[in-house]
Amino acid sequence: MQKEAMFRKHSPQDVPVQSRLNKERSAVLPYVLISPLILFIGALALYPTVRTFVESFFGVDPLNPQGFVGLQNYVSVFNNPAVIYSWVNTFLYMAFGTGLSTLVAVLVALGLRVNFRGRAVVLAILILPWALPAITEGIIWAWIYDPSFGVLNSILHSLHLISHYQLWISGNRILTVFLIELVQVWQMTPLSIILILAGLQSIPDELYEAARVDGAGLLRTTFTISLPLVRPSIAVAVVQSLVASLNVFDQVYVLNANATTGSSIMLQTYNITFQNLNFGEGYALSFIAVLITMAIALGLLKITYRRVEF
Amino acid sequence: MRSRLHLARWLVVTFICVWSLFPIYWALNTSLMSNSTAQAIPTHFSPFPIDLSNYAHIFSSTGEYGLWPSFSQSVVNTVIECAAATVVTIVIAVFSAYAFARMQFRFKNAIFYVVIATLTLPAYATLIPLYRIMSQVHLVNTYTGVVLVYVSGFLPLAIWILYNYFMTIPKALEEAAFVDGASALTALVRIILPLTGPGIASAAIITFLTAWGQFLFPLVLTTDISTQPLTVFLTGLQGRFVIPYTLLNATGVLSIVVPALVVMFLNRYIIRGMMAGSVK
């Protein structure tokens, strides 16, 4: 009722709307509205990031503070074989995770593009792994992978694919990394699927109709319409999985806690900092990881920010 | 083409159901077995006859494990931390996103760009300093410390979702209110907010689920069961080798009840929020 009254009372010419908007332009109101945001982001995101950078040049071992040490933290991080080992693992995590989750996401999104009865229910089931805590998922999968009683062994054994039960985690390094990353893929692929699906659905139906009139089949339209036009969404999905797998921690912590086979760089950073209490090296390692993440993420911003209009 | 499309769709739907649900079914299956049944070979693929002893261990304060006091405390902690973080995040995000979507002010683009850029700031960037800051101000092992850190981490995504939502609401609505002499704040609270319900729901639900799954920050910022959330409690249990996998799975199942219910009933808001990050 109130809304109707507003529309009725004046025509836009009666009161200069633009001048009111201009007045807001100079007012302090927008700054008041964003001030809590500035406070939070400034104090608890930007300031700590700067501090990570600055303190990576200091010896900040709480038990033995040393002051400015130049690049020494970086040097010792690069000379630490355990760190190098974790970096190699982390790049493997990124390769497995991004490759597998993007491949699955594209295939599944293509299969869900055209609406059908019950699709809403399928989407709800689809996003379930995304919504659950990674820690619980790690515990669930650790039991699936169990060397003595796990269902993975059981199924593969009854299919005669393995002759006896296998040690899946903490044995072979590549296999360990792959299987831990599979748990992360389980969690992060739904987001990629939804992102790509959103892209697919923004392609106008007329394109597909025109192609069908011209006699193009499903494969043809997939390769000439769907995939080329959905490329930006795929790019966003790739970046999100790259960043997630670069930061993999929870799954490694749960599935490989007492062994170093699958150690990721985030786990290494945590151990160096909070187990060995070597804060300086922790900072140096963190900062290198931040640089790599930001470089990847900048690609994402370039893609998404284009859409933002003021 | 039609039959091939149907075949492809059938394959995809089957794959999704098995892929998403089997591990969860397996945890539930295991949690409803005695330890010896779970370790039997050949594997039991259904839990019948159901054995509730694992859940009894969790809901009991006495006996071999007596998990109830610590389990219930960690549930309370999780609920308090998630609810507080969600409320604070959404209140701040609504007002800031509105300012970014509708108002003109100096440095707007620069501030917005920085806020959205922190969306991709990894845990590495802030973990150690936040721990040091929180210990300096004596907020380690407090709800306040955990919630402050959560809010700073979740704000950018909530703002991004709400910003995109505000952009879909026609400006004419507020202009009509301005014509009537309303201030910008009145227009926001009386005209725009009632229309923003679905956007707020998306942002709030996604924030809540993200908070529920947090592990690394609470692992560092909480030191005992008085503030530790479920995730930290779970890994603590896992570290105790006397805890059998059936009991661990039962605790895991209980830890996903709330997020699973949220997905079951509110999935369209979640999906809409997830799509906010996509490129149209």
Could you characterize the architecture of this molecule?
The complex is a heterodimer of chains A (310) and B (280). Helices cover 73% and strands 1% of the residues of chain A. By secondary structure, chain A is an all-alpha fold. Chain A has a single domain, classed as Orthogonal Bundle (MetI-like fold). In chain A, strand 1 and strand 2 (67-68) form a beta hairpin. In chain A, helix 4 (72-78) packs across helix 15 and helix 5 (81-112) runs parallel beside helix 9 (173-201). Chain B is mainly alpha-helical. Chain B has two domains: 2-58, no CATH class; 69-275, MetI-like fold, CATH 1.10.3720. Chain B is 74% helix and 0% strand. Chain B contains 14 helices and no strands. In chain B, helix 4 (68-102) runs parallel beside helix 7, helix 7 runs antiparallel to helix 10 (197-213) and helix 10 (197-213) crosses helix 14 (257-275). Chain B is globular and about 75 Å long. The two termini of chain B are 27 Å apart. The model of chain B has no long low-confidence stretch (mean pLDDT 91). Classes of the chains: A mainly alpha (310), B mainly alpha (280). The interface between A and B is large, with 122 and 113 residues.
